[in-house]
Write a structure and sequence with these properties.
Elements (H helix, E strand, L loop, with lengths): L1 E2 L5 E2 L9 H21 L9 H12 L9 E2 H11 L5 H12 L9 E4 L17 E4 L4 H4 L9 E3 L6 E3 L8 H4 L2 E4 L4 E4 L4 H13 L5 H4 L13 E4 L1 H9 L1 E7 L1 E6 L5 E7 L6 H13 L6 E6 L8 E5 L5 H11 L3 E7 L1 E4 L2 E4 L2 H42 L1 H10 L3 H12 L3 H8 L8 H26 L1 H19 L6 E4 L15 E7 L3 E6 L5 E2 L6 E2 L8 E8 L3 E6 L3 E6 L13 E2 L12 E7 L8 E6 L3 E6 L11 E2 L9 E7 L4 E6 L3 E6 L13 E2 L9 E6 L5 E6 L3 E6 L13 E2 L10 E7 L4 E6 L3 E6 L13 E2 L9 E7 L4 E2 L2 E2 L1 H5 L5 E2 L12 E2 L3 H6 L1
Parallel strand pairs: 10-19, 22-42
Antiparallel strand pairs: 1-2, 3-5, 4-5, 6-7, 8-9, 10-11, 11-16, 12-13, 13-15, 14-15, 17-18, 20-21, 20-24, 21-27, 23-42, 25-26, 25-28, 26-31, 29-30, 29-32, 30-35, 33-34, 33-36, 34-39, 37-38, 37-40, 38-43, 41-42, 41-44, 45-46, 47-48
Helix pairs in contact: 2-3, 7-12, 7-17, 12-15, 12-16, 12-17, 14-15, 16-17
Length: 859
């Protein structure tokens, strides 16, 4: 070794400097190509990755076929890694195990003996304990491989040869599919039914111009080994048209009626590649977290006869809702992504269904031609020998004489050539001929064999030259394979339009509160965050920011449609559950995240409404200057994100209040100075959305309207001042008068009470929520407030600090109690002669007939 410079040494070599970036790029590219071509992706011709092909070829080479005994898996793995696959034994064994699993392969290629894993995710036993052999259908992958049909290549150390691909007389790439992740690409070809695929291939052979839609009349879609249900529709068609797409796979579920009329959900088939044990764990987790309520027991009753997962349900549980939630939150329903990527002569390509079938047919035609040429050459050679033997038998005495008088074989060959024209092969065959062939019967057999060979050679010549005959041969070959190895479809097809799960079906219709702040921040809150207090209590803080107090709050239910009316007379619509839920100390999100209000536009009314079941046929609208109108609720059924005009306003006027009404009830209109007018709905005819309205109350100077309410099914009216002084008064104390009057005193206003703030119709069982400008919230029962006359000031409802005022109020409608059950739910959710009682004492109850309501309430 000699020194080149102070930093370099050389030992009879030359040091070449290179950029490490270039070296890494080159090395990674070589690695990527190796993974793509030699490991992760299947070949288009036989649908096998190298490891699977080597396993099958090695087992066939060891004669471990379907008609032989099982052999130790360790012996097979050793053969594979010793001769063909220079990788770890674990990867080879895992590949072999998967080929033996009837829940992984639609048509298993290996017949495993012993523990080869389970659908629960259990691993196979060690290779020294298990045994295996090829299945019968595997013989169709290897048939005629010794007839010069496939190309061979040297193995990794050039001591053996191995096939580049197999003959694959059945379309394994579609029948068993393939899954693999390479570098920068992946494949996921689903398994299919053998009969369907072969029928589609036959259709293509007979008409090369057939469309993919025509092929899909035969191939209904993937056919998974685990059965289950799958969608068929536009998404499925797109996947086969482009080679990319997805389908939805859903478990097969039955509902059985058990003891005491309790339902049980029974799962008998699950989606492909779903781990059953993890699926059950997920269901238990959902039950524990109370995302699914009503399951009393879960059992896995699966055995050698099939799968059976049983979910026992509580009595009166809505079975369909639980099934829907299971589909939504577990792998009982999952999407299977289709990516039909395979190697075409070592090049990865994504192909549609017709292209895959086209390549497969071309491959099989080549196999037919190659094996025909091989058979032709073999039969021609045999005919060549038999012709010489036949000639020799006709002149056997002379043949024997020549052999007797010759000293060497070479002399015999020479004499045979000169006298009969025999070549070396023919001469050797005659010399080696047994004496038994001299009998007459043997002569007849030879003549018959020559005749049969000639006939077969004529057939082969025609077959090799005729595309039509090749096609007919392939069609018969496919039909024979279908008859011998085909079976019925396992995966049932359902239309993709019925598999979508509406989010609303999964949402509990619980009570919520929606708040809106001065700076237009909105949020949804759970009513469980607030507990009832005694009248005059201090409450808890709800504001996230002292400078951004709550100006509006409203109690509704999760599935309500929320109508937002603004001071500019516009209306917007949003589902309650779409409004983001926050904690009571969070600020929320700007309202523009949900509705597209304009700059300076303020929401003045929030109306929760059940569009399909509401009894409130109209909405009563009231402006700050006392203009009112009645509009049909149905006029607001369809509102896009940008909103609609709800009322035409006079200049300077604002829409201040919107109240749902039946059209037959009375409305009470209040002003900030404490005046209240009670007017019948018949005084306001129904108008269109864009109309102005009529005068409802005659306001004195500096007075403005603060709101309105309906007396529908309400006995009392609650009036509240901005300083938290309140009173409960009989609505009957207010006389019904015509619209446009000044009204009567509804509350005595003084410095202690502050201005009149709110008027709300209530019942004794309701609860009142009040929020102040510093974010203090208090929730009190209305039974805490005594009934007083309309011209009194009232009592203290909440303890407020100096300069603290009430900025928002709302009512929690708790309807009367009957036999320990709130009847509040009965009126709200009547639908087609049935009712749904939700979450009574923590239970979800199924729909029941109204005629049976009294019995169910007693229960």
């Amino acid at each position: 070794m000699k020194r080149i410079d102070e930093n370099k040494f050389i030992d009879n070599t030359t040091i070449i400097e290179t950029d490490i970036k270039d070296e890494v790029e080159k090395g990674f590219l070589e690695y990527a190509m190796s993974v793509i071509v030699s490991r992760a992706l299947p070949d288009l011709r036989d649908g096998l990755k190298p490891v699977h092909r080597r396993i099958i070829y090695a087992m066939n080479d060891l004669k471990i076929t379907a008609d032989s005994q099982h052999k130790k898996s360790a012996r097979i793995v050793g053969e594979v890694i010793g001769k063909y696959h220079p990788h770890g034994d674990t990867s080879v064994y895992d590949a072999m195990v998967r080929m033996a699993q009837d829940f992984s392969y639609r048509y298993p290629l290996v017949d495993g003996h012993g523990n080869f894993g389970s659908i629960d995710g259990d691993g196979a036993a060690a290779m020294r304990y298990t045994e295996a052999r090829l299945t019968k259908i595997s013989s169709m992958l290897l048939k005629d491989i010794d007839m010069n049909t496939v190309e061979f290549q040297e193995n990794y150390d050039a001591t053996e040869i191995e096939p580049k691909y197999l003959t694959s007389y059945f379309p394994n790439i579609l029948v068993n599919g393939a899954t693999g992740i390479a570098v920068g690409m992946a494949t996921n070809i689903p398994p299919h039914n053998l009969r369907e695929v072969n029928a589609a291939i036959i259709e293509f052979i007979r008409n090369n111009n057939v469309t993919i839609q025509d092929l899909l009349k035969h191939i209904k879609g993937p056919d998974f080994p685990t059965g289950a249900l799958m969608t068929s529709g536009s998404r499925t068609e797109t996947a086969y048209l482009t080679g990319h797409g997805s389908i939805t796979v859903r478990a097969k579920i039955d509902v059985e009626t058990g003891d005491k009329e309790k339902d049980r959900i029974v799962v008998t088939e699950i989606p492909y590649q779903t781990n059953k044990a993890k699926l059950i764990e997920r269901i238990v987790e959902l039950y524990r977290d109370k995302q699914i309520v009503g399951i009393t027991d879960i059992r896995d009753e699966s055995n050698y006869k099939g799968m059976r997962i049983v979910l026992e349900l509580a009595k009166h549980t809505n079975t369909q809702i639980i099934i829907t939630k299971l589909f939504k939150f577990t792998n009982l329903q999952s999407n299977f992504s289709i990516n039909m990527l395979a190697l075409n002569n070592g090049i990865p390509v994504v192909l549609n269904l017709k292209q895959i079938i086209n390549f497969y047919v071309r491959h099989q035609i080549k196999m037919i031609v190659k094996r025909s040429i091989f058979e032709q050459e073999k039969l021609a050679a045999r005919s060549h020998i038999l012709t010489a033997i036949s000639t020799a038998l006709e002149d056997i005495d002379e043949i024997v004489e020549i052999i007797k008088k010759s000293k060497t074989n070479e002399e015999v060959f020479s004499k045979f050539e000169s006298k009969y024209g025999f070549d070396a092969k023919q001469s050797k065959a005659i010399v080696d001929m047994r004496l038994g062939r001299l009998v007459g019967l043997e002569r007849v057999k030879i003549e018959e064999e020559i005749k049969a060979i000639k006939s077969r050679l004529d057939e082969l010549v025609k077959l090799i030259a005729s595309q039509d005959l090749q096609n007919e041969t392939l069609i018969k070959q496919l039909q024979d394979i279908s008859d011998k190895y085909g079976d019925d479809r396992r995966t049932k097809i359902i239309d993709e339009s019925i598999i979508e799960i509406a989010d609303e079906e999964l949402i509990a219709d619980s009570q919520i509160m929606i708040t809106l702040s001065k700076n237009n921040y909105i949020r949804r809150l759970s009513l469980d965050d607030f507990k009832s207090q005694k009248r005059g209590g201090k409450g808890v803080i709800i504001n996230a920011s002292a400078e951004d107090h709550i100006v509006m709050s409203r109690v509704g239910r999760m599935k309500d449609e929320i109508l937002f009316f603004t001071d500019k007379g516009r209306v917007f619509r949003e589902k309650a559950y779409n409004i983001t839920q926050f904690t009571r100390t969070s600020r929320g999100l700007p309202v523009v995240n949900f509705i597209e209000t304009q700059k300076g536009e303020k929401v003045t009314s929030i109306i929760p409404i059940k569009t399909q079941t509401t009894k409130f046929e109209y909405l009563f609208m009231l402006t700050e200057n006392g203009i009112a109108k009645r509009v049909k609720t149905s006029d607001f059924a369809r509102i896009n994100r940008v909103g609609k005009i709800a009322i035409t306003l006079d200049e300077g006027d604002k829409l201040i209040s919107v109240v749902p009404v039946t059209g037959k009830d009375n409305v009470l209109i209040g002003s900030k100075n404490g005046r209240i007018v009670k007017v019948g709905q018949e005084s306001f005819r129904s108008l269109s959305r864009k109309s102005r309205g009529v005068k409802a109350i005659n306001l004195v100077e500096d007075d403005i309207v603060i709101g309105a309410c309906s007396d529908y099914k309400n006995k009392f009216i609650l009036t509240i001042s901005e300083r938290g002084i309140m009173k409960k008064t009989l609505i009957s104390e207010y006389s019904k008068i015509g619209r446009g009057s000044k009204g009567v005193a509804g509350m005595k206003i003084n410095d202690k009470t502050g201005l009149f703030s709110t008027m709300i119709p209530v019942r004794e069982t309701d609860e009142l929520i009040m929020i102040s400008n510093i974010g203090k919230i208090v929730k009190i029962g209305l039974d805490e407030i005594n009934v007083q006359s309309r011209n009194t000031s009232g009592v203290k409802g909440i303890g407020l600090d100096t300069d603290e005022v009430i900025t928002s109020t709302c009512i929690v409608w708790n309807k009367p109690i009957k036999d320990g059950i709130q009847e509040s739910l009965i009126e709200d959710i009547v639908v087609d002669d049935t009712i749904e009682i939700a979450e009574i004492d923590g239970l979800e109850m199924d729909e029941i007939d109204i005629t049976d309501l009294d019995n169910e309430l007693e229960t």
